[in-house]
TrEMBL record:
Pfam families: FG-GAP. Keywords: Glycoprotein, Repeat, Signal. FG-GAP repeats lie at residues 35-93, 102-159, 241-298. PANTHER family: INTEGRIN ALPHA, INTEGRIN ALPHA-PS1. Residues 1-22 form the signal peptide. It comes from Thecamonas trahens ATCC 50062. GO terms for molecular function: integrin binding. Gene3D superfamilies: Integrin alpha, N-terminal (2.130.10.130). One of its GO terms (cellular component) is external side of plasma membrane. InterPro entries: FG-GAP (IPR013517), Int_alpha_beta-p (IPR013519), Integrin_alpha (IPR000413), Integrin_alpha_N (IPR028994). GO terms for biological process: cell adhesion mediated by integrin; cell-cell adhesion; cell-matrix adhesion; integrin-mediated signaling pathway. This is FG-GAP repeat protein.
Length: 398
């Protein structure tokens, strides 16, 4: 069974049973849910809890991976992140909240409402203590936004923190004011030029990233290599709209709001899925970005949206669906091929902003990508969700 984390009024783990024979065939069957409701997890009021969610590894050493979710509007938009220690069935065992009340974060998060928790990601152990660590995006913190690396202890406490920002890992003027650095986060695995024993590779979104020549806002992504000694940035590349391969990204699309990575083409090298939920006045789309990792260059983009690649959902998702608010790449139906799941929080349902999770089974190769099957997971399509989901599906993670 594949577990997908969907963010809604509470966090919901959706179990998907796999029935497949070859790439893109078979079915994805809604199987069961585990709802982290208010009886097990405390959600700050009016905080947009679940804007981001990630499985981050086994923090407490009990043999079961743990999770984290962001609440970027908590504490008047200072933001918070909740770490959830999981039981084997996906239910919550205990929680730990990281916020400006956490001593190691107080000074940093008290300077302004930075929306800490807009994105979260796990890159494994980044300081050599055998405890997985946490990356958190705070895109409104400081002039440009920051990514905060939080070194965790086994009780989900904080031993120390560092940042990725101008002058700390990046150049003094790498980022421009207002770019929302940290809008999206993803760990990138499977790149042959990276020694993963000593380094991690991450993708960071800038949903308001500027074209460095025209200064117009398109959205950007930054790829950074992190040391597993102290989490420091050892190399980085910024892809803004002025660079080769970025031409398909349109003005004001929110490109970089969500990022995922996976070997979609089956070549042994990952590509990136990058959400652009504001495209076409919030209809949204996802870009599958092919990379030359040796040259650190974009070699092509494939657009995923309604009507493309054989994906024609019925009923349609609607003009304000915000496709790409959340993205995930994984072999969801166990057919040996990587598939795509995406969040569409504005998708039309029984009412506005109920949203849906779209699971797209892909049949892909070195020169082609096609959607062979589509499963809609939503309030009306899955009655078991009706006691749990009362608002938008924003993010998806496996």
């Amino acid at each position: 069974m594949t577990w997908v984390a969907m963010t809604a009024a509470a966090i919901v783990l959706v179990g998907l049973a796999q029935l497949a024979a070859s790439c893109g065939t078979g079915q994805v069957v809604f199987d069961e849910i585990v709802d982290w409701d208010n009886t097990t997890v405390a959600y700050p009021t009016a905080s947009r809890s679940g804007t981001s969610v990630a499985l981050i590894g086994d923090v407490d050493g009990d043999g079961t991976g743990d999770a984290a979710f962001g609440s970027p509007l908590a504490d008047l938009s200072d933001g918070s992140v909740t770490i959830v220690m999981l039981n084997q069935d996906g239910s919550a065992n205990s929680t730990s909240v990281l916020s400006k009340a956490t001593s190691a974060l107080t000074t940093m998060l008290s300077t302004q409402a930075g929306q800490f928790g807009t994105s979260v990601g796990g890159a494994g152990d980044l300081n050599g203590d055998s405890v997985p660590d946490l990356l958190v995006g705070a895109p409104v913190l400081g002039a440009t936004g920051k990514v905060i690396i939080i070194f965790l202890t086994t009780d989900a406490g904080v031993s120390s923190v560092t940042t990725i920002e101008n002058g700390v890992g990046l150049g003094l003027t790498t980022l421009v004011a207002g770019e929302l650095f940290g809008s999206g986060l993803a760990t990138i695995k499977g790149v042959s030029t990276i020694n993963y024993a000593t380094h991690a590779l991450v993708g960071i979104g800038l949903a308001s990233g500027q074209d460095r020549i025209t200064t117009q806002i398109y959205g950007s992504i930054l790829i950074a290599t992190l040391s597993r000694v102290d989490g420091s940035v050892t190399a980085f590349t910024l892809f803004d709209h002025s660079q080769s391969g970025m031409a398909p990204v349109t003005l004001g699309s929110g490109f970089g709001s969500a990022i995922a990575a996976g070997d979609v083409r089956g070549t042994g090298s990952p590509l990136l899925a990058v959400g652009a939920p504001l495209y076409d006045s919030a209809r949204g789309r996802v870009f599958l970005v092919d990379m030359d990792w040796t040259l650190m260059a974009i070699t092509g983009m494939t657009i995923v949206e309604e009507g493309a690649l054989g994906w024609t959902p019925t009923p349609a998702l609607g003009s304000l669906s915000q496709i790409g608010t959340g993205v995930m790449l994984a072999d969801i139906n166990a057919d040996g091929c990587v598939d795509l799941a995406l969040g569409a929080p504005g998708a039309e349902e029984i009412g506005p902003n109920y949203g849906m999770l779209a699971v797209l089974l892909l049949n892909s190769g070195p020169s082609s990508i096609a959607v062979e099957a589509f499963t809609r997971i939503s309030y009306s399509a899955n009655p078991a969700l009706q006691s749990a989901v009362t608002s938008t599906v924003r993010d998806v993670r496996i």
